[in-house]
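Hi Prof. W.,

I finally got the MoaD/ThiS family protein prediction working! I wasn't sure whether to trim anything, so I left the full sequence exactly as given:
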Amino acid sequence: MTITIKYFGLLTETTQCHEESINFSGDLVSELLETLFSRYPDLRLKNFQVAQNQALVSLNTKLSGNEIALLPPYAGG
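And this is what came out:
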C-alpha cells in the first residue's frame, strides 16, 4: 500500500522533506517507523507522536489509513 507521511516542525529538518509517499507492506505503525528509522537514522533520536488519519495512535496500532503524520512536541499559548 502507498502511505503518505507528513513531517512537522523539527522533523522536517531531520528528513529534509515535509511530505513523502512510500510503498509499505507491513501491518503496524511500529513497523513503518522502523522503515523510516532506516532511511533517517537521526529520526530515532527525536521525540514525536504518530497520528493516523488525524488521530493520535500507539506503536501497536494496525495501519488502516493512507496518511501518517509525525508530530513533534508542541507548546500551547
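Residues 2-71 form a domain with the Ubiquitin-like (UB roll) fold (CATH 3.10.20.30). Does that look reasonable to you?

Thanks,
D.
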